[in-house]
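Minutes, methods subgroup
Present: GH (chair), OT, SY

1. OT presented the first of two proteins processed in the latest run. Sequence and structure tokens recorded below as shown on screen.
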Amino acid sequence: MGILKRLREDIDSAREHDPAARSSTEIVLVYSGLHAIWAHRLAHRMWRRRPLQTPARALSQAVRTLTGIEIHPGAQIGRRFFIDHGMGVVIGETTEIGDDCMLYQGVTLGGRSLEQVKRHPTLGDGVVVGAGAKVLGPVELGEGATVGANAVVVKSAPEHSILTGIPAHARSRTETERKPAVDPAEYALDPALFI
């Protein structure tokens, strides 16, 4: 996928996840989560080239200062990832994030070990992590899992589960929770409004 298509995909993802988004211009200019993700992609490429690891860390720290979002350049992040609001988000070095995931402000995807091993979470496709939640250690959250606000997750959870509490406990979604609360078509707007 070309860089312009990838940037467009990110902008479209922001619009899809944030009903307050008014235009592509606004998203590009003021969405700090998007800025952090774009900078992370560059830092991650640098990180994979050993002589550029220190400049990659320097870039990630500069972006942290500007956006309030700290993403280690070693973290692996999939497509259409969205960080809403973003202030205080921390994503550790060995974190793996699938496609179509979303984090809210104050989320930590952190470690619980000082050993140089896989020590950060793995999020499957479509995982949503609520504001202030902490997902700690090499846990795996299955596809479509949702972590409630301020939950502290220290154990893996199956796909399509809901995790709440401290420490978080997983439960299966009920039939009504599997359906979207609102039909996205209800909010479909004329695409010309976003140009």
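2. SY then presented the second protein from the same run.
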Amino acid sequence: MEKKNDNFQVLIITGLSGAGKTQVVNYLEDWGYFCVDNLPPTLLTKFTELSMQSEGKINKVALVMDVRGGEFFHDLFNALIELKQNNIKYEILFLEASNEVLIRRFKETRRRHPLAPEGRLLEAIQNERSMLEELRGKANVIIDTSNISPRDLKEKLLTLYSSDENSGGFSISLISFGYKAGIPLDTDLIMDVRFIPNPYYDPVMKNMTGQDTEVIDYVLESSITKSFIRRFLNLLKFLIPNYITEGKTNLSIAIGCTGGQHRSVAITDYIGKQLNRLGYNVTVKHRDVSKYTMED
């Protein structure tokens, strides 16, 4: 290639059949990506080179490549090596879901699994997991769609890929949660803050949340909280630059307490503000804050 476009973006979408790749492509098309579904891996380098020579008409491409490629799918790793040799940067988005959810989706839509033309759906899903295991390990972002709504999926993708500001740099996703409702599956780091003094046992704050001033002061003024936040922020200050150097484009951090109502909410908001002040692109979400009026 004679000329390179440093702003050119290549996003490879892969993962388990039924995990939501088609839905992701629909969103990306709305955000200006040139999308191709089921592109043979052998054409990856050539397609990318042609796109880069479009004189700016195509700056973002999203390519779905999965086991539907059959024998050609195994050529993907060689194609990725070619991209790297040609100094073409790319990211891999991997979508997955639990066996139970995938089986239900296939039965509801009456679709046929590409590895199960004659049935045996569970066996096909397990085989597909095995085939994709190495590729999953190379993914920049992994999203488990088992318990995520279309709206939440869109918001997550919006943070990662929609705007020029977000798609070109490193982003951090912070989420507070309650252990009672389960641990978020698609996170890189999980912090348990149930050791911090609990506002729930104060009758005045019992039905408040971590976004109320009284609760914020109670949680953040604790000497235990101050010590934890100081150490946790120092850890993040060490980790984040190294993640960026390694090529990671998004860091997902989950902070949990018992119910996701008080402690995790206050601490997540505070950590988000501190990371924002350090110049990082941060989004904050409170998964369970509206669910509980009980013990935090």
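Chair's summary of item 2: The first helix runs from residue 21 to 30.
Next meeting: continue with the remaining queue.
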